[in-house]
Amino acid sequence: MSGEGVSAGKGRATRSATGGLKVERVWTTEGVHPYDEVAWERRDVVMTNWRDGSINFEQRGVEFPEFWSVNAANIVTTKYFRGAVGTPQREWSLKQLVDRVVKTYRAAGEQHGYFATPADAEIFEHELTWMLLHQVFSFNSPVWFNVGTPSPQQVSACFILAVDDSMDSILDWYKEEGLIFKGGSGSGVNLSRIRSSKELLSSGGTASGPVSFMRGADASAGTIKSGGATRRAAKMVILDVDHPDIEEFVQTKAREEDKIRALRDAGFDMDLGGHDIVSVQYQNANNSVRVSDEFMRAVDARDSFALRARLDGSIVEKIDAHGLFHSIAQAAWECADPGLQYDDTINDWHTCPETGRITASNPCSEYLHLDNSSCNLASLNLMKFLRADGGFEVEKFVKSVEFVITAMDISICFADFPTEKIGITTRAYRQLGIGYANLGALLMASGLPYDSDGGRSVAAAITSLMTGTAYRRSAELAGVVGAYEGYARNAEPHKRVMRKHAAANDEIKPSHPVATAIVREATKQWTQGNKIGDKNGWRNSQASVLAPTGTIGLMMDCDTTGVEPDLALVKFKKLVGGGSMQIVNQTVPRALRALGYPEEQVEAIVEHISEHGHVIDAPGLKSEHYAVFDCAMGERSIAPMGHVRMMAAVQPFISGAISKTVNMPESATVEDVEQIYYEGWKLGLKALAIYRDNCKVGQPLSAASSSSSKAAAPAVVTPEPVVEYRPVRKRLPKKRPSETVSFSVGGAEGYLTASSYPDDGLGEVFLKMSKQGSTLAGVMDAFSVAISIGLQYGVPLETFVTKFTNMRFEPAGMTDDPDIRMAASVMDYIFRRLALDFLPYERRAELGIFTATERAAQVAAESEGTLDLAGMAQSAPVSAPVPPPAATDEPAAAKPAPHVGSSTELLEAVIGKAADAPLCFTCGTKMRPAGSCYVCEGCGSTSGCS
What we know:
Layout: E1 40-48, E2 55-65, H1 70-79, H2 94-111, H3 118-133, E3 137-139, H4 141-146, E4 158-160, H5 167-182, E5 186-190, H6 210-226, E6 235-240, H7 246-265, E7 286-291, H8 293-301, E8 304-308, E9 315-320, H9 321-335, E10 339-342, H10 343-348, E11 360-361, E12 368-369, E13 373-381, H11 394-414, H12 420-429, E14 432-437, H13 439-445, H14 453-481, H15 487-506, H16 513-536, H17 551-555, E15 570-574, E16 580-584, H18 587-594, H19 599-612, H20 640-650, E17 661-664, H21 670-682, E18 687-692, H22 704-708, E19 738-745, E20 748-756, E21 762-768, H23 775-792, H24 797-804, E22 813-817, E23 820-823, H25 826-838, H26 841-847, H27 852-859, H28 861-864, H29 869-874, H30 903-911, E24 928-930, E25 933-935
Parallel strand pairs: 4-5, 5-6, 6-7, 7-10, 13-14, 17-18
Antiparallel strand pairs: 1-2, 3-13, 4-13, 8-9, 10-18, 11-12, 15-16, 19-20, 20-21, 22-23, 24-25
Helix pairs in contact: 2-3, 2-11, 3-11, 5-6, 7-9, 8-9, 9-21, 11-14, 13-18, 14-15, 14-16, 14-20, 15-16, 18-19, 24-25
């Protein structure tokens, strides 16, 4: 589609005589509806409660394309289908969902004069339908929740609020934030207008200061969260670096971490729902400091820096700039907060400075614009544009961006907003946030390391092309339906920012043939778009962001989210019928072929990765190619500066910012954090946050925790006489207590009978599977006798558990046991069950084996989290994620793995180390990173923006 002054071509639109867009086809075929090109199938979606095995969602006979994964279909069915389950009003087909949304967009586009004729509107509808059906892109979650339903037509996921220095404004902030949380979205706010605790009120008293008011907002967020939401309230709180209360703000969450430790150690109930948890504050927000160039230069020069009064700007006190910067890094090192937002860089790229400064962001820091505004997001699946020969579908990418941007702008015409102020600002400035997912998969499949000049040049080129095309489309739309209301007063600064983007595009130095072709087209888009914009203005004050793409990334079956690299080389895949399996990411063999490896070597390398989880010493793989397969976690993880450099490569081509947390190893120092924050400023980032592994109390225990508590063996002064010990069999009495458990593993049924000594302790097991006289029945009888004799001769049960858990063979998959939802084999299930029934909590914790009740209590840990093993063994568990397995003398492959229910848990099993990821509030499995948030692969829930 194209607008006035641009020649028409396939997939473009021209300004027609009637003033609308003339649309031509890109993906679709004339005379064939997109639904008729796809093979459809019916599926049953049954979601069980991970705590007790009960069914908490069931919808049978839902309809999806055959090529949609089980996970994508499950998430769409449970999260996005509207109507009460079991009623005729309930949606049951992807066709209904897509039609509900796309037909609403078409109708609004026709109503507001976007299309020249009804035929153009129909082509637009079919193109959007095809792209959604084939997972080329997705709107953000609120669109799927609300559009085309009787609910308010909220389409935005990101909100920015404003607070002034008055009690009325502060109370309005509490109310507005609560309404946004109630709707499942998040917001951000800058509190720097509020007078500090070092300033006087007009009455003569001393002001409370913003940190004090943060307590009320935090309590409100926690209350609304606990009132029925299935995820944490997502919010961002920001304070300017020259605010007199900045030092108190920096330390707020670090001090609370100390409080959690102290109260836990004193025996207080620090469970999420416990009586004492209310004393822990500031846990429902991400905190960021807004730093200026002046401050960063003072840090560099080891100079002093002035903190200024809010009312008159007078100097309240001067502090050592580097000392404050070190305090910020120290707090982030301790608890991951605060992050930094670079104020002068943000506002230097601001298209609307005549209206007001950019003071805040949404919770994930990708949306940065005016106060009391919102942004609706959509993301493209980059892997859909990678050709089999390694090239990039430049033309289709350009045309796809045109369609998506047009649809996103149409949505503002009919959208509803949580407050009147947000609605007024958004309609006047029409902020959009197109972005992408699967960048990490694209680079790997192309044979490019994520942390390389080649990888960064491709990423920069694609981002520049996306935003350049989006703004060119916006300029064309301005010629059809008018520029945004605030454009007239901001025309010159808007044009200046467009020139800055174009100049940055000219600075890209492509070091890869694909990047060269993309940059060539991006240059055309910026040149063409700025020429049209000089004449028409622009329809949108903002066009692009890089969001986490959590739930919608799973909907599109993406391997990687946003701008992130691959999490790991192995992943967890759900199968039809409820089972699951470990697979090597499909981008790996594609990358190997792109690098020129023959098929037999590809198979051997993939087999090595499947067994070890990494490429080190893979047969036939050249060491210079190892970097192509570097991931966010695992044996060869990308260095922190590798993440920062990728962010710096794409930032000049993003209207907003990038949702991403830079992970740092546990061994990182405070000085390392300082360096990352300093380099983020020097490299021109707008926002940056770090996370150091295991920095929070609520993270999984390290393997060393159990071993460090063991007392050292006393020194031997004289040699002891050698005594030969022989085991003595302790037989069970004729009458002994026993219990029988029926079980099912992957559809195979059996019975387990366990008998105990009267003074407690397992002494005998019997296993029955298959018919008496069959080979399987005989093998199980013999196995039972061998295990029973071993127990009676004193072999500890935990030795058998260590040896047999995680043993993998068929049948495997789902079980009917609420404590053990998945089993790698019958043996894996049996010895996990025996461990749960006969081993004390402390030993099971070291082995990574927990009951459903214990895991349920651990879910509450994600926000506060402490872990007291002794207390947990006797009472309700305190707040902490699931501990990893303890270190043993066995090789890594033989270590018992935790219950695998997600790619993160699979990665833990492979590398033998726990990942710092929260448990999903809905289904209890470990989430995986998605930008600066987390997403659950099981149900699609996110910890922030969707």
